[in-house]
Amino acid sequence: MPRFPGGVHPREIQKARTRSLPIETLPPPERLTVPLVQHIGAPAKPIVKKGDKVARGAPIAEAGGFVSVPVHSPVSGTVAALLQCAHPLGMRADAVEIENDGEDRPAPGLSADEAVEDAAGLSPEEIRSRIQAAGICGMGGAGFPTHVKLSPPPEKPVDTLILNGAECEPALSADHRLMVERADGVARGARLLAAALGDRSGGGGVRVIFAVEENKPDAADALKRAASALDLECEVTALPVRYPQGAERQLIYALTGRKVPPATEKGLPMDVGVVVQNVGTACAVHEAVERGVPLTERILTVAGDAVERPANLMVRIGTPVETVLERAGAAPDAGVLLIGGPMMGLAQYSADVPVIKTTSGVLLSREEPSARFDPCIRCGRCVESCPMTLVPSKISVFAERGLFEDAVRWGALDCVECGCCAFVCPAERPIVHQVKLTKAESARRPA
Amino acid sequence: MSGHGNTTLAVKVSPHLREGESVPLIMWTVVIALAPAGLAGVYAFGWRAALVMIECFAFCIVVQVICLKMRGAKGARPDGSAAVTGLLLAFILPPTVRWYVPLVGAVVAIGLAKEAFGGLGANFFNPALVARAFLQFAFPSQLSLPKWPVLKADILGAGRIISDITGPDAVTRATPLAVLQRNAGAGWAAVAPDYAFGAPLVRHLGLVAGALVFIVLLGLAAAGVWLWARRGKRLFGVLTVGAFLLFGLLPTGPVALGSIPGCIGETSAWALLAGGLALVYWRCIRWQLPVAYILTALLFVLILPVRSGGGELVWTASGGGGAVLAHVFGGGLFLGAFFMITDMVTSPLTVKGQIAFGALAGVLVALIRLYAGYPEGVCYSILLANAARPLIDRYIAPRAFGSTGGWRGTKSV
Question: Could you tell me the pTM of the whole model?
Answer without folding.
Answer: 0.87
